[in-house]
Amino acid sequence: MTLPTYKHKGKTVWVKINPKDDLLGVPPVFLTNPETYTPRVDPESGRIEEWGLVDPQQGDDPNDVPEMPYEYIRMFAKQTLYGFGGDKESPEVQWCKLRAALKEKKLKADPAAVKARQAQDYILKIRFEDLQDKKGDKFCWRVVKVSGGMKLSVFSDKVLLPAMGWCRNYHAYTFIDRSDGGLFGPKESNYIDLSHLHCHGQYFIDDDKYTLAHILVDEKSELGYNYDLGDFWRHNITVEKILPAEESNGKVELLSGSGACPPEDGSLPERWQKTYDKLMNSNLRGPEIQKKVKDALNYKDEPEVKSKSWRYDPHHFDLARAKTRLQEALASRASDKTGPKMFMMGGGMGGIGGFPGMGGLSANLANLNLGGSPFPVPSGSQATVQKEKGRSSRMVEHIRVGDEPKGICGSCGRPDDKLLRCGRCRAIWYCGRECQRSHWKAHKQVCVASGDDVD
Question: MYND-type domain location, by residue (predicted)?
């Protein structure tokens, strides 16, 4: 694959540059050939991060720009020259898009091998990277079994987020292929924190197009997962075992775990580490911190949190409750990322927020047809509004109400080309009659005939 080249001030480059761009603060890597670039290991994490890029250290920049991160130096130039009324894409985005095209070509090079891995089950360990105990151990993790045929987008929405304890359809996220820094994320989405993408990789490949088997080629493979591009909570996913196809059934299982998920919007990771240290050194377990956690969007609706005696313990992990969250997510509609959860204050948007749950399949979660979404509502979805108790704000989210796109079995989580859809509500798929019959007791509570509104 030979990439086209351009001239800028007498030099050969692989991206189109606005003649008025002085390139102040641009790392030299974005002026090199993306095809011959060798991904670099990040010295801080010890792993390959987004596109294998490493932030330029002071003195590495040929323009010798001191101290201030290049993302902020470049922000004004991007907005004026490549933003409103300017060229469509900055040199940085163009370069990353070229790397993405090369990555996608590689992913499609051996479809037979990918198909074979998609028939296998993976046992994965998801470890939260931004919290450690006094011994230096990263103690918050989950071990799950999933099919290699599961899409990255589904894995995030219906497995990783509920298993860890984060909210669904609330914040943006990215996956990183640790072999080369290939970046994947939610295309056609309206997550507010995508405004921080310029600090975290510039551009990503659609995670709805590729499965775990595309990335995790063997038991040495690893995936990075960054959640909330504002606060930026880092996770690392390793392969514990890949089961032979004859021993694989495609079912999703949460096998074990340790540690409690941090609260949504709690603080930046480094601040949360200090909060954790304070909790561990406090006899009263920090009453202000406890209130903050209880009010957090991923905790306030949890059954045990409603008890007056409940106290947040960073080392506590309730396997049974986590399995319930996971099962609820599997049985729900896929999140509609065109309208993520957010707070609306009066007539306008006052911040972002969310609530965990079934993603709109249950009548108890939202009232339909009240409008108020700041984003266009696509066909097959509706805007939902939920009033916040004791607050003037309301929660807005898009949920799917039409025919549910084929995804995974709503009972066991198996992805399969031969999935059968519930003929009454058309909102859930099953891998066979056995799963449909075993799940009917739970599903009949929310099964509404297709075409009926939920109210």
Answer: 409-447
**Sign of the C-alpha dihedral, residues 136, 137, 141, 143?**
positive
Low-confidence ranges of the chain (pLDDT < 70): 1, 56-72, 84-87, 282-285, 346-371, 390-391, 450-455
The CB density around residue 80, as the number of other CB atoms within 10 Å, is 14
- What pLDDT sits at residue 2? 85
Nearest CA to 53 among 199, 228, 237?
A: 199
- pLDDT of res. 391: 67
Looking at residue 71, its pLDDT comes to 65
Structure tokens at 360: 């709109």
Orientation angle between helical segments 287-295 and 269-280, nearest 10 degrees: 130
Place of tokens 């641009």: 26
Q: Per CATH, the architecture of 119-330 is what?
A: Roll (3.10)
Instruction: Name which of 446, 418, 444, 334 is nearest 380 in CA terms.
Output: 334
Which H or E run contains 122?
strand 121-128
Residue 146 near residue 163 (C-beta atoms within 8 A): no
Token pair 């600090």: residue: 199
